[in-house]
Predict the structure.
Amino acid sequence: MYEPIIDALRRGAADEALDAARAAVAEQPQDPGAQRLLAMAQRLAGDTDAAIATIEHAITLAPEDAELHLARAGLLLQARQLDQAQSALARSIGLDPNLFPAYIVQAQLAIGRGDLDEAERIARTVARIAPTHPQVAAIEGTLALRRGDADRALVILSEASGRDPEEPQLRHALGFAYLAKGHFAFAEQAFRSMLERDPQSHALRALVADVVRRQGRSGEAADELIPLLEHTDTPALQRLIAELELDAGRAADALPRLRTLAAAAPQERRNLAALIEAWRQLEDADDARATLEAMLAEHPQLPDLWLARLSVEAFAGADARAVVERWLAAMPQFVPAHEAMLTVLDKAGEDEQAEAVALAIVELEPGHAQAELRMVDRLLKRDPGAALTRVEGLLARAEDPVAKRNLRQLLGRSYDIAGQPDVAAATWAELHGEVVSQRLPLPQPTAPVAQWPELAPLPDPAPAVLLLWGAPGSLVERIALTFELSGGPLRADRYGPKPPDDPMQRYDTPHLLADGSLDGAEMVARWRAGLATRGVSDGNIFDWLLLWDNALLLALRPHLPEGLLLIAVRDPRDMLLEWLAFGSPAPFALESPVTGARWLAQVLDQVADLHEQDLFPHHLLKLDEVADDPVALAQAIVDAMQIPLTAAPARALGPQHLAPGHWRAFAEPLAEAFALLTPVAVRLGYPEA
């Protein structure tokens, strides 16, 4: 009687299983087995509530049947009724202490709520009942994975999967173990095999789509998700599909979805951002203007619509100004509209008009950081004493700690311009001293190397390897920005939130090379091995280094002869002053000006050694006269390296900092620090005084 039902369930034929199960129940309404099979058919058909009701009726017919309580627990789990599921499991184990599947589900529940110790206790119990069962391995592997040991998880799950390749829980856990190791193709294979067995599982389909996306196949990921719209047509899913289509270059497919989403929720920034990207890919500014103008006519008070409309225009052009003027007419008291006008005027170089807008912003919102700083900047040029008074007033009113630190830094600059270098230096030094414990310690230079390995011949062909570095205050970041804005392949990830995990990033690498603990060939090999994870597939890289020490040449001379080192330098005394006043890209601790000068002198002495002895192919790029001029800076790089490079746009390098030779204004308050730097300054070609 049960065979037709079981056969249909195995084949996933939900309608056929339902018909057969209902017939069996009609024939034997008091048979709990028939009721259980009907619940399974209802579950397969997606009617979980009906399945729970059916299994509960079966329990009334056979209240001591542990298997029925276990089946109810599984259905309650599917319905996310976790507490009731836990009670049903406890009941099933109470009726049959050897009921293996109940323990498995209990362990899964424990893992799900993060109680790994409880899950491990249960795993030990089930291992005594059935030590070689694949579901035991699935639990043990998942526990290893949750405890951060992906390698052990992969060993456990791979071995068990070899014995039971069709066990779904094993495949599921194995897929996540592959994910943890970054083996996305294997993870996809594991999850796809499960999806083939359960094609109605939305969660599995979404998981497969995500793994496909991680492999860079965004279009295929979108295609995997599209069938889900028949069951779950939500704005979030539509947007995700559209974003994947955009990433795959299928803007024409994404545009209709995004139009609908933006029309339904014009206040949703993510919808607008994706819609703008679709128009950009399609190069259809006319459609973008027409659509956004229609939306603005209906929603003139939505700032994000105005920003979207502005993004279609070139900010320095007349169209952008006209759009901002209309925005201001629609929302005259709205500060971000004035900020947009300030940006337009800045990029057009209309300083006086920009100052007038900054004044209007301050009147609308006293204490507005950008506008207040603009007012201070204007006063610094015309009346430094008044600028000091304004900054002191802002500082007295500021409550945010970060804003206070920024204002104190500006206060130091105001003292500098007002001709009070002693107070300026003390203000800056105090700021640095307060955060020493929150900054990176200074990398300690190695001792001079007595004997260098031979410089290896260039390989043929040789990849382009540029190593960029500059000490704090050198303004090396402006070289990096010039490369970036010209489309060069610079990698600045060493200064980002996820720096590469390679020897070039480690403080101890130079010392390990110097004492022989680290082999140079191994160091370079590990650096090369990490390039793929940084998006470099052909070996060509411009790598902006966090630190430099000549001991690195113990590895680079014999094993990376194709490298070219570009070092940014300025007068070391200006470098110290720049570091003191404005910080540096790498947040190194500056305990005091004298401590910083002593370290900077040691580091730059190594640079002088490298240059004087020509220890490695390199260029010293002196930025003293070109750091504030994008064209001159680009030309200096071109002259040094003989590569094509486009100058950064005007003002792209940011505001001017300190003029070359400004250190002389601080000769008295920083006399001890400058005395430490003067010898290396002379070695690098700068005057003694």
